[in-house]
Amino acid sequence: MTTLRLTDQLKFFIKYAIRFTHESHAEAILLLLEGSADWKRLKNLFETANRQYGEEVAKLHEITETSDSAPTNKETSENKEPAEYPLPRLVVVANTEEDLAGAAEEGFTCIDLGMRDYPTNERLTQALLEAVSDELIPTRSSVVTLFGAFGADEIDSISLTHLDEHFDRLTVHDLRNLVTTVSLDILRAVVDLAIEIGRDGREGKPVGTMFVIGDSKKVLEQSTSAGFDPVRGYGREERDITDAKVREGIKEIAQLDGAFIISSKGIVEAACRTLASTAKNITLSKGLGSRHWAAAAISKSCKAIAVSVSQTSGTVRIFQNGEVVLRIEQTKRRPVVLREFDEN
User: Fold this and answer.
1) How far apart are the C-alpha atoms of 284 and 334, rounded to whole Å?
2) Strands 142-147 and 157-162
3) Which side of the chain, N or C, has fewer Cβ within a 10 Å radius?
4) Which residues of the chain, if any, have pLDDT below 50?
């Protein structure tokens, strides 16, 4: 297990992370690690840096007031207490629960990322997404991040990220209200993937596709193969929608015609399927194409949730019982965070 080295360089970065956080009114400091750390000593470094910052600001204010006004009473100046600066929220991100052992006890907010073999920029983006999605930090806030760009056991980089420039807030409280045997985690994984496809397309080209989740046996009966099925012959673990590598593969396959059939357990049962359900007694808004009618029809005839991605606009629509229950507009080409909230 790699352990973060508590060097003078780290102390320097922590000092400026504290300064950036207070002066930019950032919400938190996020520490991206490749392994573990001596959490007690690390927390002490942050507390010491935070206290020193408060003392420096108080001293600077005292010098400014003295130079701008009449001489102050020495006793009054000595008795004046420096302003308190509460320690910013400290969010530590690592790859395993073992790496984070003991961090929470020292007051760190922990994120188990599980992305050891991914590039730093992808791990950082995912860490910010999870922090916002889990409401550890507000969507419209700023975050100071410390990470090692070139060394697994050393911090060598610092960044200030304004989240309102990178994330759109998306409310998906409707997902919890869907009457289905599909778990919320599976629904969110599929919807998140649909949003990414609608937003980014593939290699700069817009992509439209559809996912049908749940009641997969009946859905397969009401659909036919469009010819070649790219997922056929793979084991269940190689078709799990919650696996990041599987989702990347689906993005490639999504360029082909047809729908993805996904079981309530999150297993991709088939791809490139042509749906054959009747659209009788279904009413949709004008302008929606055949993909949306097929999604509505299959969600009407089966106990399934259909998620369609518009190729022209990137809009994601979720269908149940033949109706659109949630529409997600792609207003900007930037990450979208799935969040839940209670409407007043």
Assistant:
1) 29
2) antiparallel
3) C
4) 76-77, 169-173, 342-344
